[in-house]
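User: Okay, second chain of the day. Same drill as before: sequence in, structure tokens out.
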Amino acid sequence: MARMSVAHRREALVGAALAVIERDGVHAATTRAIVAEAGMSLASFHYAYASRDELLEAVVRRVVDGYAAAEADLEIEGPLEVESLVRSAITSYVELLRADPAREQGMIELSLYSIRTEGLRTVATAQYAAYQDFTESVIRRIAEVTGTRWKVPTPLLARMVTTMTDGLTLGYLVNRDDEALDQLTELVVAALMQQVERD
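Assistant: Same drill. Structure tokens below.
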């Protein structure tokens, strides 16, 4: 087998960890299960990552980078109405949820597992910090291109959006009700529009 660079090894292990988490849950994503999924040896894992925790943080980054790619596709450029951009941003996430519910379920599991597991809380902290940063960047871009001002500071508004999308996600994973998801998406948009500062 050709020798893999550390970067390629890391990418393969992140992909394998995501596959195991999506298919079998976080509890099943042991280092042995991950290297088996990647077709690597355990020694290869330790060559690429210092610990499973470090790998799990890389998994979070990969998923958040996927959100960032989706943000780039939002075409958040003026002149557009703030409501249409808010709807586009929320709908973009909702479509990711519909397209890959197993991934979103895995990320929720990863959050809860990290909180409950000694020494892993930093993974959940890093995960939600990444969500917060991503969401805040979208909110700021929308404000910039529309000349909008928000009633509350953008970090707080980003936390509100993250909380609401967590609720959308969990509700959809439990019920798989597309019609309810569409209705709730509109309620989230309406809630965000309530935070627009009107002149």
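The radius of gyration is 19 Å.

User: Thanks, on to the next one.
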